[in-house]
Amino acid sequence: MLxxxxxxxxxxxxxxxxxxxxxxxxxxxxxxxxxxxxAVFVSIWSVGGLAGAAVSGWITDIIGRKRVxxxxxxxxxxxxxxxxxxxxxxxxxxxxxxxxxxxxVFYITGWLVIAFAKGAWQLDLGRLLLGLGESINSYLSPIYxxxxxxKYIRGxxxxxxxxxxxxxxxxxxxxxxxxxxxxxxxxxxxxxVAQLIVAFFIPESxxxxxxxxxxxxxxxxxxxxxxxxxxxxxxAKEIKESIDVFNYISNDGILDLFQRKYxxxxxxxxxxxxxxxxxxxxxxTLYTGxxxxxxxxSTTVGFGTVAVFEIVVTLMTMMLVDxxxxxxxxxxxxxxxxFGSFLTGLSYFxxxxxxFKDFTPKLALIGVMxxxxxxxxxxxxxxIIISEIFPINIKGSAGSICNVTFSVCSLICSxxxxxxxxxxxxxxxxxxxxxxxxxILFLATLVPETKGRTLEEINALMTDSFQ
Length: 467
Fold this sequence. Notes:
By secondary structure, the chain is an all-alpha fold. It has one domain: Up-down Bundle (Growth Hormone, Chain: A), CATH 1.20.1250.20. The protein has helices spanning 2-31, 35-63, 65-84, 88-95, 98-115, 120-148, 154-176, 181-189, 191-199, 206-211, 215-226, 233-249, 263-278, 281-286, 288-295, 299-324, 326-350, 360-378, 381-389, 395-423, 425-446, 455-464. Helix 15 packs antiparallel against helix 18 and helix 17 packs antiparallel against helix 18. It is found in: Cell membrane. It holds the Pfam family Sugar_tr. Keywords: Cell membrane, Coiled coil, Membrane, Sugar transport, Transmembrane, Transmembrane helix, Transport. It comes from Erythroxylum novogranatense.
């Protein structure tokens, strides 16, 4: 049930990620958008993400993981009515957390605004609203999964959610190449009703309950998660002792993050978010259609081929992440990003050479497949690591900083890519390849292996590193 709720939420996010790639030419034709106007539409999602990122950690620390989730899912249902009958918003304010409802009504209303948009500003508004809710959810999901899953399946649990994301993106690519962009936006709003129904049955994070002193609920919830017959005494003791220590130290804020004891964790968290984006992630996922067209590839063939390949690679990841380890798997994935960008750049370089003219579209497709397949292999791992390396007393503040970093880099990359492509297609993808190779060096020198360790053991390791 827990993973079902998480996966439905992530499926909704995947629709947002994959939306712009197949609809680019339809939107630009119907509404007469320029390249710059469409770039704003794509990148403004990250602007909304910045606002959500700034408060995501604080909100989940203050009102808990479950109540944030219930508010997020509840807005799906309410916002359908809000869109047509705005007076129901007043009722909603009393039904859920007030601040969260405002943010989360944006989350689903954004799809409806896009679906009925008549001009560029309405598209931008809808995309902005989607970014607000998505950013909070992107932070909340890995934290929630990390805190409820046993250490021996934590990586696998993330990989199941990653399969949902990749499947959702792939499905969006395929469906988006068949139906129009307005209908695709309406489809994006549908999962909310199902999410609302099942969200009421999920438990709160036991670690968060222990943190705020609700000890009886903490033990009851942990027992429910592990099974009626499971012996939770050792795990409960370890969690309680760890939280008591950090509560004694204090519940640190954002400025407290810049202490020596958090230096390694913060460097790793911010570094992972930077490399995750500037390697070209936004370019490949948000502008896949543009890449295919400029390389001379049929969008239908390209989207279909990439969709199948991504799903296969993600299934492989599910089997490997808790066996091979996070660090090694991420290094392999980023090596794939490097190779994929190199192949894509090479295809553009050879495009105007007569001897290679028929071969370059195939080479470009292989490059895109290698990049997105490698992304599928390792995209969830940075979020897994970030959810593991920060102690609970600083996790909210750290999560906000990492989320803001991710959103800023996403904004820069998603807005600038189309202009970079016009400047030099070959140079753009070669730059992505170089950046990805530096990411591998970053992993090799700074990032530890967290596989098979409890969150408390990881926190001790990270703190001891700079004592």
